[in-house]
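Protein Record: Sequence and Backbone Structure Tokens
======================================================
Tokens: labelled as protein backbone structure tokens, with as many entries as the chain has residues.
Task: work out the structure tokens from the sequence, keeping to the layout shown below.
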Amino acid sequence: MSAAQAPTADGQAQGPAVRPPRHEVDPVLTIEDLSVEYRAETTVRAVDHVSLTLGRGEVLGLAGESGCGKSTLAYGVNRLLKPPAVVTGGAVRFHSREGHVVDTSVLDGDDLRLFRWEKISMVFQGAMNSLNPVKKIRDQLGDVFATHRPSMTRRERVLRSGDLLERVGVDRNRLLAYPHELSGGMRQRVMIAMAMALDPQVMIMDEPTTALDVVVQREILQEISRLRAELGFAVVFITHDLPLLLEISDRIAVMRAGRIVEEAPAMTLYTRPQHDYTKTLLSSFPSLTGAHGDFVRSGSADLADSGGER
């Protein structure tokens, strides 16, 4: 009997066994019933009892309109929220490849500082705003190593920083440049290099291709896919651009008004969306081959014609 076949109670083979999803077998990050409020004159619940699991090496897309709570969720996972934002419930647990489970809510001080970037890193919205405009790229990448790898010499930091730039497709000579001397795509690549510096197991990318033209977007997406395959980190990819997520993600969670309204493998969500809001998001993007609003129908036909490949 083939190893791919599952036996019945009487020992007879009944066909290929169904492999459980990666995030169930080997999770790297679990979010359990997380809630976040902004407490001002009026209290706003930005994240409302959200539960998600990220598999090791998986790309989980998080889609939704502006203001639905996507970035607040990302900041909550990485303990980056500041007042008036308050985590009011739930838990975030990191499952290390070494077998340890870390409850991020109990981390504080140096433990929290060391956890960030080394275990979970983040690529923030707006690379130009994330980079220090008066410091050279060399110094900004070097700061990561100076903080987290204090035993490294200055020469080692520079060499490692140059290697990181080349890994994301930027010439190491750009270490001597200031952020304003780089194009938008290069600045975004620098941010990705910085997020990769300490070999994290999870990378959260918050709108990493916003404000970039479509050609540069394509290059960035290809770079992310290549690096993920090469290094094995998991990705939470946040954007309002659902078609973009369909291309890069293994699974997609759709968020609306602070809640996850639908979660499914990318192909399933693409061809058989269940929630009305997901259908609305899909239909809001025009098809390249049909009329406005035909995204789902033409997309399904294109998949059928291509044998189901994206």
